[in-house]
Structures are given as C-alpha cells and as structure tokens.
Amino acid sequence: MNKRVSGLLMISCLLISMTAACGYEKKIQSSDHDYGSRKTGDAKMLGGKMYGTSSANNPHQHDNNFFEYSNTISNEVSKLGGVGSAIVMLTDKNAYVGLALDWTAVGTKSAGHTDEQDRSGSSEGVYNHDTGSQRWDNRQLVTPYNSLFTVNDHSMLSDELKQTVAVKVRELAPAVQEVHISANMDFVNELNEYAKEAWMNHSLTPWLKDFNTLVKYQFAGGKIMPQKIKDYDQIRAKNRGGQSIIPNL
C-alpha cells in the first residue's frame, strides 16, 4: 500500500514539474527574449501582421511629405529584448525603424543569416581586424567591426522581432499606416545622422528628398542611395564661404 501511495505521489510530482516547465517555456516564448520559437499559436504572432506593406499597389506610399525623429518611441523600442539601439522616424504616412541589435534575446535573425560585423579582432585584442586598430570609429552608431550588429536586408530579421517592434510603435503612434523596419547598417547610420540633426534642433525639411530616396531604396526596390549627410558636411567644409550644398534648402 505504501509503495502504491509513494508511486502516486511521484507521478503527481512529475506532472506538477512538467506543467511548471511547460508554463515557463511558454512564458519565455511569449516574451521579448525569444524571437526564434516560431511555433503555431505564439502569442507574439497572433492577429494580423503589423509591419511592412499593407497598402497594396500604392507606388506613392514612400513619398512622404515630412518626417520627424521620435525620441519617445526610439527609447521604448530600444528597451525591447534583442535591441541595443533604435532610431524611429515618423512621417505623415509611415513609421520607419532602424535597429541595431544586441545579444539580449535569441532568434533576432531569420534562420541561416549572418550579421554584417566582423568580430574576429576581439580575440586578438583589436577593434579592426583588417587594420589592427584598437580605436572605435565613434562617428557612427554601427560599424563593420565589434559593435552592435546589423543584417543587410529587412527580410533577414525574425518576423517575431518585427512584429514585436511594430506593435510597440503602433501603441505609441496609432495613426501610422505602415511600419517599416530594417537593421541594415547604412540605413541605421543614416537615420542616426537625421536624429543628430533633430537633437541640435535643426529642421529635417532640407533632407526630405534624400530621406524618401533612402526608404525607397530599403523597402520599395529603389535603385539608388542618397548622398550621406556626413558627405555633405565634408563638401561644405571644403567650400566655406561658397553656396550651401545642403539639398532643398
């Protein structure tokens, strides 16, 4: 009799442990620490897709009439697991999000894709493996060496990560039509340059044409990248006293 009771107690303990373990696993999968489970019924993916193109066959979706940096939304997205830094721009139509990723979550990239950074120098005690330099180029948010990491194309990001980011953006900016998200290094760095202009209370209006060119290149099959802000600054420095070369001014 005692053996039977002991057996029942053991089975009960096992069932409780399994239930607790399953509950813990489900909680992790539903959190912003796991973007890689990709299982049917994942809480992060319930409901409609919140990111990417929703206005089908609209060739003018990225012809924005203005854009502005959102410090509040950038900070909130930066708090999400897996996101080291985020730059969010709002327009009259859309939200555009540039992500620099970190190692605080799993599955941030879609399967089989690698990031744009070379970290081989870390094992050699240098920053730049190609040149042997120990110095970080702090003029950019993301660099090709030992920094936060990025991926070349937005399709290389986990759908769960993009959904989580888009939901957060829409919570804070419910009027946006579309949320477009990329962790491309050039895209992130250029959004960061626009953010610097905003931090200095400079108008972003002179950069609207370049901004639209940038987002079309990233999200709508555009064929050209705009001139980078830092390139304009270098040209301006060489032509002090001459006519301004800032576009649309």
Automatic annotation (TrEMBL):
Region (Disordered): 110-132
Biased composition (Basic and acidic residues): 112-121
UniProt source species: Paenibacillus glycanilyticus
This protein's name: Sporulation lipoprotein YhcN/YlaJ (Spore_YhcN_YlaJ)
Lineage: Bacteria, Bacillati, Bacillota, Bacilli, Bacillales
Signal peptide residues on this chain, from the entry's feature table: 1-23
Origin: domain of life: Bacteria
Record key words, sorted: Signal
Compositional bias of kind Polar residues: 122-132
